[in-house]
Design goal:
The protein is α+β, with helices and mostly antiparallel strands. It has one domain (5-289). The protein has seven helices and 13 strands. It has a seven-stranded mixed β-sheet. The protein has a six-stranded mixed β-sheet with strand order 2-7-3-4-5-6. A hairpin with a 2-residue loop joins β9 and β10 (251-261).
Length: 290
């Protein structure tokens, strides 16, 4: 699961961000009956269908002889959870979902947390374990939750109401911090990662007509970059790959964060396919996940 503080602190973060082991970035809570809404309620059956059909395997050729579902300290529970979150946000635009970090027994662990409304319009949350594709029984979410749609600074705190369920109330909402989940330290693959990004138009959504109209309103830049980050992570499971959420040109935006060395982070804009590297001054980050 997550590396210890010493592992995380080996990486210099853009904007001089420091790591935090606990907390939440927050969520934009405006349910479907509020205009303009920020989320859509889907049936639990639809959400579980997407989660069960998501591809949780890595495809890093360097580790082709390793287990595709789990490689210790390289492709593990947080990677699988983020894959599930990215899949739900794409296939079910507007669905509130996130990664929950806590403990399963005495072991630190990460799973997917998702929300849906019951017949009385009450929001219910449950946990999903990508490892065996079923409910995460006995999970204790006592560390952090990164939930989507991601909270934004121009969104009134009163409107979030912790999803109207109280789940996020126990977590401190943090700004200008990094959440570190992976301990990848292989910087020798930087050029290979750069070439991989240049060869693919990650600024364009995968082709799909399902929920196309909903995606226009409910699929955010943060969602796209989470998906991109996981696609890059699948291919380079021993290298640090981050995503930064923030503001560019006064609008919500997100970028990748790559490391050429432990003390040399680079910000990569996927909408600049040929040369995506940009300066810190071109983008204002609020939070980074690694």
């Amino acid at each position: 699961m997550a590396p210890n503080k010493a592992d995380c602190d080996k990486l210099t973060k853009p904007y001089r961000f420091k790591n935090t082991p606990d907390g939440t970035i927050g969520i934009r809570f405006k349910p479907p009956d509020v205009t303009p809404a920020t989320m859509v309620s889907y049936s639990e059956e639809k959400i579980l269908e997407v989660l069960r059909n998501a591809n949780y395997l890595h495809h890093d050729p360097k580790y082709s002889n390793e287990d595709k579902l789990h490689v210790e300290d390289k492709w593990d529970c947080d990677d699988r959870a983020f894959v599930g979150v990215a899949a739900v946000r794409f296939w079910l635009p507007g669905c509130p979902v996130g990664i929950a970090v806590g403990h399963s027994g005495n072991v630190q662990h990460a799973v997917v947390v998702y929300w849906f409304q019951d017949n009385n319009k009450k929001w219910i949350h449950k946990y999903f374990e990508p490892w065996d594709k079923k409910e995460a029984v006995g999970f204790n979410d006592d560390k952090s939750i990164i939930a989507f749609p991601l909270f934004r600074q121009d969104f009134s705190q009163e409107s979030t109401d912790s999803l109207g369920m109280g789940l996020l109330k126990k977590f401190t909402r943090v700004e200008n911090k990094s959440f570190c989940y992976d301990k990848g330290q292989d910087f020798s693959r930087f050029d290979e990662i750069e070439s991989f990004l240049k060869a693919r138009n990650f600024g364009k959504l995968p082709e799909d007509t399902t929920f196309k109209d909903l995606r226009k309103d409910y699929y955010d830049p943060e969602d796209l970059l989470l998906w991109v980050r996981q696609e890059v992570r699948r291919r380079f499971i021993d290298s640090p790959i981050g995503v930064a959420f923030g503001i560019k040109n006064k609008s919500p935006y997100a970028t990748l964060v790559l490391w050429k060395s432990a003390d040399d982070p680079r910000i990569w804009d996927v909408n600049r396919q040929i040369n995506g590297e940009i300066k810190e001054s071109e983008f204002t980050a609020r939070a980074i996940i690694i």
